[in-house]
Amino acid sequence: MSSSPVTLFGHWICPFSVRVEFALAQRGIDYVVVDVPPRAVRPKGFVVPEEFITHSPKLEVPMVKIDGEYLADSIPILEWLEEKFTDSSLLPADDAGQAVVRERVAWLNKYVYGPMIGVYYGTDARLIQESSVAFTTALETVDRWLQVAPWLAGEAPSLAEAIMIGVYTRLDGLAQLGLTGELPASVQQHLQRCTQLVGWDTVRWTTEQTNEFVSRFLRYREIQNARKN
User: Fold this and answer.
1) Is 70 helix (H, G, I), strand (E, B) or coil?
2) Same domain, yes or no, for 60 and 141?
3) Which of 1, 111, 190, 208 has its CA at a distance of 20 to 30 angstroms from the CA of residue 138?
4) Per DSSP, what are the bridge partners of residue 154?
């Protein structure tokens, strides 16, 4: 067990940072946040901490420090937290259960996050719609999981929920940026269950945060489209 708080270098607008902060809060791990905006939304003149520059290979959030050791990249961080802290684990005790969680974490990271990012970074209406369709299709698989159990990988919240929280926080903003289609009923119910978790209140977005997210990416589209013309 760590004897000092975890330091999270991250930012609320980054879904990968949100995964880690949710897990920390959900598990009751003591932590502090050093605000480092992702490179894509980093303001001009923002002074990136030297500590972050030294230890983050890609200079992207999230990165954590535990007892003088550093690690970047959200999924390895989530696993590292499981090694460092034993209380309130987000992994089942049995090997088979852990394998299911890890498989679904990888699946969500690829098939839900890929098209989600395609929606808000999209600059072409056709490609935004294609990403939206791919996102909705991926949720059909999630829906099938939730027909079997109340949580994404079984009977209790797991690391898979930490991954989905990064999606759920920005759903309203995604809709304003071109995401179409409705959540399957079981996914809506899962979202509601997630909002009752301890970690949710720490990472949920305010209206102001949603508006900032939307305005940033609308402006990004304007700039990219102006460059094309």
Assistant:
1) strand
2) no
3) 208
4) 151
* Segment 177-196 mean pLDDT: 97
Given this model, what pLDDT does residue 40 score? 82
Report pTM. Answer: 0.95
Instruction: State the pLDDT at residue 4.
Output: 75
How far apart CA 115 and CA 129 sit, in angstroms, is: 10
CA separation for the pair 55, 184 (Å, rounded): 41
What does the pLDDT look like over 80-134, one tens digit per residue? 999 999 999 999 999 999 999 999 999 999 999 999 999 999 999 999 999 999 9
Domain extent, residue 131, equals 95-222
Whether residue 79 is found in the same domain as residue 108: no
Distance (Å, whole) CA 156 – CA 185: 19
CA angle 211, 168, 193 (to 5 degrees): 130
- 70 bridge partner residues: 65
Chain-centroid distance of CA 11 in Å reads: 11
Whole-number pLDDT of residue 1: 57
CATH number of the domain enclosing 114: 1.20.1050.10
Cα distances (Å, whole numbers) of residue 42 to 32, 110, 216: 20, 25, 11
Within a domain: residue 19? yes
Do 162 and 26 form a contact (C-beta atoms < 8 A)? yes
Tokens of 159: 């690391």
Strands (E), 62-193: 63-66, 69-72
pLDDT confidence band for 225 (50 / 70 / 90):
confident
* Structural domain includes residue 126: yes
